[in-house]
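Objective 1b of the project was to move from sequence-level analysis to a structural picture of ligand recognition. The entry below was assembled by the postdoctoral researcher (A.K.) and checked by the PI before modelling. It contains the amino acid sequence of the target and the SMILES of the bound compound, copper (II) ion.
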Amino acid sequence: MKARSLLLTTVAATALALAGVASPATVQADEAAANIIRAATDLPAPLGERGPKTVRVDLETVELMGQLDDGTTYRYWTYNEKVPGPFVRVRVGDTVEVGLRNDENSWVPHNVDFHAVTGPHGGGSATLANPGEASEGFTFKALQPGLYVYHCAVPMVAQHIHNGMYGLILVEPEGGLPEVDREFYVMQGEIYTEEAFGTRGEVVESYEKLMNETPEYYVFNGAAQALTGDLAMHAEVGETVRIYFGVGGPNKTSSLHMIGEIFDEVYALASVTSDPLTDVQTISVPPGGAAIVDFKVDVPSEYILVDHALSRAERGLVAHLQVEGPEQPDIFRTGTSERLGALDE
Ligand SMILES: [Cu+2]
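Corresponding predicted holo structure:
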C-alpha cells in the first residue's frame, strides 16, 4: 500500500515535470502564496550601553499560505507572518511587556511561551488568544542573560511548532556581547507533510508523520533552501560573523556545521555566562535550545551552513554565506608543490 502511494506520487511528479517547469495549478498556488521566510539579516542592532528599562513586544499570530519550496505551498502558522518569528532583543534586568493578538482569519487558538521567562508557562496561559481576539498579555523581568527560544504552546504543541510558530529572544548580558561585524538570525525546523518532499502544488500536514517524527522537509528560516540565492548571508574577508542559531524543531537535534569554516567561539547551549568553547567544528543544538557561534572569515568562498546529519540537506536544509574579498593563498590555494601523476600509463 505504502509502495503504491509512493509510486503514485512519483508518477504525479513526473507528469508535472513533463508538463513544463510549472503546471497552471502550481503557478496559481505560487501567486497566492506569501513569502514567509525571515531574512537572516532581520534582527535588531546590539543594544549598546544602556541601563534596564521597560520594553514592549507585540506579536500577531497569523495563519497563511506560504511558499515552502519552488512551486510548493503550505499553510503556515506564524508570528508576524514570517518564520521564525521576530528576533526579540532585550538586556538583563529589562522589564518586558508581551502582547499577543490572534488574527481573525486563524482557524485555531495560539499563544507564546518564552524560555527566557521565569513564571507560569513562560507566559503561555496569559497570552492564549482565540481567532480574532487579543490576549491579556503579561509582564516579566529578564533575570538571566542568554539566547532563548520562544514558541506556541497550545496543544498539540508539536503541531503548532512544525507549522512555524517559534523564534528567539536574546537577553544581552550587562554591557552586551563582544562586538562583531555581522550578525545573523537562523532557526531550524521540520515540516511534516502528507506528500513526499519535492511534490509540487499545495501540500498538507501529516499527523501520522508528525507523531512518527519523520518529516519530509527540514528548513532554515521556514522554507526549503530559504537562505540561498537572494537571501544568502554575506560578509567580507577579514570580518567577524556571529550566528544566533536556534532549533524550533519540534523534534530533531541539529548538528550545526559550516562547510569550509571552523567556529572560533561557541556559546554552547546559548549560555553567555559560561566561557565560550573555542575552535569547534560542529555544535549540537537541541529542539527548544540555541547556540551562538562566532567566527572570522579568512578566505573568500561560498560557505555552506548545514546540519551535519546530511540527509537533511537533501530535504531543504542548506544555507549559504557568501564571502567576498581578496584570495588568501597562504591560508588556502588550489594545487600543491608537486602534482601526482595520472594513472593511465
Ligand atoms: Cu499556535
